[in-house]
Write the structure tokens for this entry.
Amino acid sequence: FTVSLPTDVTSTTATEVTITVTGTADNGVDYTTIPVTVTIPADSNSALIPVEVLDDLELEGDETVIVTLVSTNNPSIGIHATENEATVTIGDNEDNGDLVVSIEATTPNANEPDVDGAFTVSLPTDVTSTTATEVTITVTGTADNGVDYTTIPVTVTIPADSNS
């Protein structure tokens, strides 16, 4: 983001601009913390507000950072009535269509009467999703679903913020 005075206008003193930071991305989590003020140096026309993205392993889709200009400390310099907000969109590198879920027999050897088997359905290592992920499965084999073992449903849900 660039906060600027009108073209060819500068101030002999530094101008502190108060801002709000909103959007779907979290300040200090999805990008380095953006403070609530930015200073346009004396004899300068603008100041840069960098949005330094922090990579995570969450499948969350694109997120937005919205900066809104609120006020200045200089009574001679106001906030533009319509050009007072800008948005940066952070693309999610985990949301590239290449992610796959996997299944593993985590307890592959079940025995009657007291050793149950187990399967684990997972996202890739260290990847989580901000929403629940429902996976449709097919159950086959020589043992009968619901007869030889308790019924395994046709969908499995990986909870939000979880890997499996």
